[in-house]
Amino acid sequence: MTAPVLDVRELKKIYGTGEATVHALRGVNLVVERGDYVAIMGSSGSGKSTLMNILGALDVPTSGQYLLDGVDVSRLADRQLALARNRLIGFIFQAFNLIPRTTAVANVELPLAYAGVKPRERRRRAMAALEVVGLADRAKHEPNQLSGGQQQRVAVARALVTEPALLLADEPTGNLDTRSTDDVLTVFDQLSAAGRTIVLITHEPEVGDRAKRLIRLVDGSIVTDQRQAPVLATGRHQA
Amino acid sequence: MSFYEVVRFALRGLSANKLRSALTMLGILIGVAAVILLVAVGNGSAKAISDRIEALGTNTITVLSSGRGGSTSTALTPEIADALADPVLAPDVASVSPVVSSSATLTYEGTDHDVSSFVGTTPGWFAASNTPVGTGAAFTADDEAQGRRVVVLGQTVAEELFPGVDPLDKQVTVGGALFTVVGVLQQKSSTGFQDSNDTAVAPMSAVRQVLTGYGSLNSILVEATDPGKVDAVQSEVSTILDQRLEVSATGAASTSTPYRIQNASQLLATQTETAGTFTTLLGAVAAISLLVGGIGITNIMLVTVTERTREIGIRKALGAPRRVILTQFLIEATLLSVLGGALGVAAALIGSSFEIVGVKPVIVPSSVGLALGVSIAIGLFFGGLPASRAARLRPIDALRYE
Predict the structure, then answer these.
(1) Range of the domain at B45
(2) Which of A53, A82, A101 comes nearest B319 by C-beta?
(3) CB of A56 within 8 Å of any CB in chain B?
(4) Domain residues for A129?
C-alpha cells in the first residue's frame, strides 16, 4: 500500500500573541487516501480556511507534522516548497485568482511553464485540461470575458493540468450562483470518478453532499468524520 | 524554466498595461534627454566662445596705452612699435603691427556709411590679427611707405556702399580724401555685440595723414612666432616698453605702467573657465530634473509591484520559484528603463542637431553615459526592491495583500 496522499498529525496554528492570541487549529489529525473525495465543512471562523492554506503549502503551521505524498512539507526550503506546490498540489481558490489580461489557455499553461514543460507540449496539455472542464472553445478568452463559473472551471483546469497528487479547493463555489456551482461540481464528480484525490472546503451542505467523506470542523478541531454515499449529479443543469 | 520564457512573461506583463509602461518610459526619456541636451548646450556655448576668441588669434598680444590724454612721454609711437621688432631683445616676435583707428564716414556716389573702426596699420596686421582678405588684395608695404590712399573694406561696409556692385577699384571718400578700394575682407564671426565686419583697413601713413593726425598709436599688435611663445613675447615686450617709456622698477605700484598688454590666450582661459561654470550650472539643473524623473520611475515601479502583489501570490501558489518571479520583475524594470533611456538618448541626439537659443549643442559623451546609467540604476533598484520583497512573502500573505 502506498503512502496516503495527505497525512496530518497534531496540526496547530496560532495567530497573534498575548491577549490577541487566536487558536485557529487546535491539533488536527487527518489522513486522506488516494482517490478519496473529502469535503471539510464548518462555519465561518472554524479554521477551515487556515487548514486549507496549510494543506496547500501556502501557509506554515505553528506546530505539527504534515506529510504530502510521503514528503514532510514543514521541513522544505522555499525552493523545494515551490516545487511541491507545482507538482503535488492543484489549488482552486474561492476568488478564482486567474492572472488578469491573460487568456484562459495561457493561465492554464502557467504551472506547466514553471514546471519547465516545452511550449508545444504545454499547449497540448492545457487544451486537454480545458477540454476536461468543457471550455476548449473559450481558450482565447481573457478572464474578464468569462462568466464566474467559466473562470472557476478555467481555474480547475489550471489546477489539474500538472496532474497533481492532490486537488485542493477552497470554497470553490462560494462566489458562484446555483447553475455555475453545478457546472463546477459536475467537473469535480467526473475528476473523482477518474480517480483524482480531491479535498474541498465549503459551508454549503449541497456541496458537501456530493463528496464521499464529510468532515466537520468546529473551533479548530474535527468533530465528525464520516463516510457517505455521494449524492450523484441530478442532471438538473448538465453542462 | 528557461530565461527566454521569463523574458516572454516580462513582455506580456509590460504589454498588459501599455499606457503605464509608456508613461514610465516617457518620464525616463525626458530626464535622460534633458541632462544630455542641457549639458550639450552648455558645452556648445563654451565651444562657440572659445572658437570666437581663437578667431582673434591666440598667438598675438595687444599693447594698449593706458595713459590719459596722450602725454608724449607715455604715448605709444611708431618708433616704439619699430623698437619691438628687435631680433635681439625680442627673438620670439614674428611681426609688429602698429594700429591707429578712428570712426569715419565713407561716401560713395551719395551713399553714406559710418564705420566704427577705420583702421590704419601695416600689411602684417592682416595675418597677425587673423583677418584674411576675401576678394582683391591687401595693400602692400610699398603702399604703406608711399602713403597711398587705398582701403580694404569689411563685408558690412562693402554691402552697404556697393549693393550689387563690385567694389574693387571704386573710389570712396573718407574725411575729404579719396581712397581706392583694393580688397574686401572675408566674412568674420562677430565677437559680442560689435559687428566685426563693419570695418575698413588702410595703410597707417594714409590714415594718419587724413584722419587721425600724427599723434600716438591706439595699439600695437604683436605676433609671436608660435602660440606657445606668447608668454615669452609678452615679457620681452614689457622689458622693451619699460626701457623705452622709462618705467622705474622702484616707482609706484605696477598699476601705474603707461601701457596695458592684452593676451588672447589669457582671455581664452578666462572665458573657458566661465563657460565651464555655465555648463556645470546647466548640468546641475538637468541633474535635478533627472532626479525628479527618477522619483517618478520609483513611484511607478512601487505602484506596479504593489498592485501586482496578488499576482505574485497566485504565481507562487502555482509553484513559481522566488528567483523566477524576481527575474521577471527585474526584466520588466530593466526593459522600461533601458528602452526609456535609449529613447532619451535618441531624442537628445536629434535635438542636438538643432540650434537651441542660438547655440549649437555639442554632446558630451560622459553625460550620455551618466544620464543613462543613473536612470537604469534607479529603474533596476526601485523595480527590483519591491519585487524582491513581494517574492519573499508567503503566498497566502501575498494573496491577501490589498
Answers:
(1) 3-51+270-400
(2) A82
(3) yes
(4) 34-62+77-227
Chain B residues touching chain A at CB-CB below 8 Å = 1-2, 5, 9, 12, 16-17, 310-311, 313-322, 324, 394-396, 399
Of B399, B362, B373, the residue nearest B38 (C-alpha):
B362
Q: Does A116 touch chain B (CB under 8 A)?
A: yes
The CATH number for A215's domain is: 3.40.50.300
Q: What is the pLDDT of residues B20-75, one digit of tens each?
A: 888 888 888 888 888 888 888 888 888 887 777 776 666 788 888 776 544 445 67
CB spacing of B319 vs A91 below 8 angstroms: no
A22 is a domain residue: no
Is B221 inside any structural domain?
A: yes
Which is it for strands A63-68 and A71-72: parallel, antiparallel or unpaired?
A: antiparallel
A114 and B395: CB-CB below 8 Å? no
Q: What beta strand segments (E) does B186-282 contain?
A: 199-203, 219-224, 259-263
Q: Which three cell numbers stand for residue B265?
A: 590666450
Q: Are residues B36 and B159 in the same domain?
A: no
| Chain A interface, best mutation among B314, B322, B326, by max A CB count within 10 A | B314
Whether the pLDDT of residue B133 is over 90: the answer is no
Asked if residue B363 belongs to a domain, the reply is yes
DSSP for residue A4: P
Co-location of B94 and B7 in the same domain: no
A198 vs B210, residue with greater confidence: A198
Model confidence pLDDT, tens digit, residues B346-360: 999 998 888 877 778
Which of these three, B257, B278, B297, is where a domain ends? B257
B74 falls within a domain: yes
Average pLDDT, chain B: 81
Q: How many CA atoms lie within 13 A of B314 on its CB side?
A: 20
Q: Is the pLDDT of residue B132 over 60?
A: yes
Backbone phi, then psi, for B319, in 5-degree steps?
A: 100, 20
A123 touches chain B (CB under 8 A): no
